User: Fold this.
Amino acid sequence: MYIGIGIVLIAGLFLLYGFCGNYLLTTEQYQLSSGKLEKDTVMVLLTDLHTCSHGRKNEKLLQKIKESRADFICIAGDMVVKNGKRTAEVVSFIKKLVVEYPVYYSPGNHEIRMPEYEKYREELRRAGVIYLENESVETAGGICITGLDLPEYWYHKVWQKREFTVSEMTHLLGKCRQDCYTVLLAHNPEYFRQYAGWGADLTLSGHLHGGIARLPFLGGVISPSLRLFPAYDAGKFERQGRYMIVSRGLGLHHIKLRFFNRPEVSVINLTCHLKRK
Assistant:
């Protein structure tokens, strides 16, 4: 009897921790350097808010961003949910960001499935958001930001075999510029090999929510496409001198718990270093 009560108590505490973890917002710092950069730059990556709120009207999230002393904000998709509920709250939050920072936004799989997606996108553009759908812009400091609008077809389940290629990326985006430091906003991190092969110096992604739960030495447990222990769950990854940073995301969607997987504001510190002659 006592063993059963103990198991119930432990399970209850574990669930309580998972629930509380939904709101324990943290900041993750990442460091990168490149000779392509013209100056040191700080950018903040936001993903997967899914209309959640950290504090009243996201005041806690805004404060975390303010503390980062960012030069600009990159949003890599899924700030909303596919049914379009509470979208006005997300728009209000992003409008506050635009007042303080340049904001670059590329959609995820939830944005592109919203019934009023075009209305949402245009409202953000009118507010001053630089909304990138397979487009690129050049910022100060030798940085080119490209937003990948990946069709829903490429967000497949584990039982569906689909091979995304560099040629298909080039068809969507054109050739990658080599004369500047290219930052690719690509919601789905699964295709890092293709992103690096296309030429992105740094890819910023989300989508996997850190694997929902995180286990010591094993990392994230499951992806939205139902893949166990996904390779690119969260953190910084490198492939042949090119990098990808995957955020654990800011919110929740189907599974309303996070275990050892706090929501994150990703702060990327880019350092300029001179090329050796």
In short: The chain has a mean pLDDT of 87. The longest strand covers residues 26-34. The longest helix spans residues 2-21.
